[in-house]
Amino acid sequence: MEFLELSQVISIAMVMLFLFLSGRILFSCWITPTLVYQKLRRNGFGGPTPSFPLGNITEMTEKNGGSSLKSSNITHHDIHSSVFPYFARWQKLHGKVFIYWVGTEPFLYIAEPEFLKKMSAEVVAKSWGKPTVFKNDRDPMFGNGLIMSEGDNWVRHRHVITPAFHPTNLKVMATLMVESTTRMLNKWTTLIKSGRPEIDAEREITTTAGIIIAKTSFGMSYNSGQEVFKKLRALQVTLFNSNRFVGVPFNKVLCPKQNLEAKMLGKEIDRLLLTIITDRKKSIEEQRRPSQDLLGLLLQGSRAVDDNPGKSLNTQELVDECKTFFFGGHETTALAITWTLLLLATHPEWQNQLRDEIREVVKDKDHDLDADMVAGLKKMGWVMNEVLRLYPSAPNVQRQARGDIVVNGLTIPNGTNIWIDVVSMHHDPALWGEDANEFKPERFKDDLYGGCKHKMGYLPFGFGGRMCIGRNLTFLEYKIVLTLILSRFSFTLSPTYSHSPSLLLSLRPRYGMPLIFQPL
C-alpha cells in the first residue's frame, strides 16, 4: 500500500511538472507574444506577420545570393539591399517604421529621421534601455560595460570614463599611434621589396588598431594585447557568424555548443584582463601615481567617484569596461580606415587631393603628428564623414523603451525593442539626393551633415546623450594612420577583391581588403 501511495505521489508530481513545463513553453512561445503582437497592431503598428516562436527569423536568415561584386564592377555603393535584404524588402511593403520579430521579441524598426527625432525628444539619455535579449546574449563580450549599462549605472560609468578622452590625454596617445603604424608600414615595405605588393589591408589595420588601443588605453604589452584581441575576435565570430535563434525561448538549449563556446571564451578574456588589472594596481601602489590612460582612470574610479564609495566600480565592472573599450576602441576605427582605403583605391583623384593637403599641413613632420596638426586636415575630415556615411562601422543603433512613448499618436509600449537602421538612412535618396550611393566627400565641405535634409538622418556615432564617447579618439587615430599610409604609398584594388560588405556586429568586408601597394 505504501509503495502504491508513493508511486501515485510521484506520478502526480510528474504530471504537475509536465503541465507546468508545458504551460510555460506554451505561454513563452505562443500566448504571450501573440497578445503583445495584437496590442502592437491595435496601437497602429504594421509589419511582416510573425510565425511564433521564430517570429521573422526564417525570412531574416534566408540566403541572399549574388550580392558580391568583383573589384572592377564597383561603380556604386548601394549596400542596404545586400547587407539587410529583409529590411529593404519589408520597407517596400510596410514603410520606414514597422514592427518585426526576432523570435518572440518585438522590434520597432525605424528608418525615418523625423519619427526618430520625435521619439528621442521624449526620452533622456539615461532613461533609454538596451534590448534585454541582446544584453543576455552578448554578455560574454560586453558584460555590463558602458555599451550595455542603463540608468544611473550608465551615468556612473560614463562619469568615470570621460576624462580618458580629454584632449591632454589624446595628445599623449598620438605618439604611440605613430610608432605602431610606422612599424606596420615598415613591414609593408619589406613585403613589397620581396615581390609581394598585395596586402590584406583589413587584417593588417585591424591588428595594428588592436595594438594601438592595447598600448594607449591599457598599457598592455604587444603579446598581451594580441592574446586579448584574438580571443575577442573568436568570440565575435562565435556570437555573430551563426544563427543561434537569439530571441527564441530556451535558445541556449537549442544551440548548446555555440553558447558554451561563447561563455568559455568570455571567461578566458575575463581572466586575461583581470591579470592585467591586478598588475596595474600593483604598479600604481608602488609608484603612488596613477597613469592617465583609460585603465588608470578606471582604477581610480574603482576606489570612488567624487569621493563617494557608493559610486565606485567593482572588479567585474572594471573587466567589463576593458572588454567593451578594447573591442569598440579598435573595431570602429580599423573598419573606417579599411573602407576608406577601398574608396580611395577606386578614386585615385582623392588620394592625390589628400596627399597635397598632407604636404601643405603636415609638411615633413609626419613622425611628430599630434592632435593639433591633424585637426588641420579638413579634406581628410570630409573623406572620413563620407566613408562613415556609405559604410558606417556601426550599421544600426539599438534601444529599449523603459516606459510608454507616444509618437504621432502611436504608443510604443514599455519594453519594446527599437532598431534604428543607420545604413538605410545613410543611403536614402530622399535625404541625400540622387547621388546618395556615390562617393562625394565634397558634400561635407560646408555642412557638418553633408547636405542631409534631416539632421537625424546622419548618425555615424549614434545620437543624443548616448553618442559614442570615444569619437575624438577615432578622429585622431583615423587621421594619423591615413596620413602615414598616404605619405608612403599609393594603392589600387587587387583583382582578387570581391565587394561583399557583411554584418558581424560591425560592417566589414566579408573577404578582406586585398590592395596593391606601391611605394612613393
Q: How would you describe the overall organization of this protein?
A:
One of its GO terms (molecular function) is monooxygenase activity. This is Cytochrome P450. Its cofactor is heme. 56% of the residues lie in helices and 10% in strands. With 520 residues, it is α+β, with helices and mostly antiparallel strands. The chain has two domains: 42 residues; 477 residues, Orthogonal Bundle (Cytochrome p450), CATH 1.10.630. The model has no long low-confidence stretch (mean pLDDT 89).
Entry summary:
The chain has helices spanning 2-42, 57-60, 80-83, 85-94, 113-121, 132-137, 139-142, 151-161, 167-193, 201-218, 222-240, 251-254, 256-287, 294-303, 315-346, 348-361, 371-374, 378-390, 422-426, 429-432, 471-488, and strands at 69-70, 97-102, 105-110, 198-200, 396-400, 405-407, 410-412, 417-421, 489-493, 498-499, 501-504, 506-509, 514-519.
| Overall pLDDT confidence | 89
Radius of gyration: 25 Å
Total domains? 2
Quaternary assembly: single chain
What structural class do you assign from the helix and strand content?
A: alpha+beta
Terminal residue distance: 96 Å
**What's the architecture of the largest domain in CATH terms?**
Orthogonal Bundle
Enumerate the strands of the largest sheet in spatial order, edge to edge or round the barrel: 2-3-8-5
Give the count of helical stretches: 21
Shape: globular
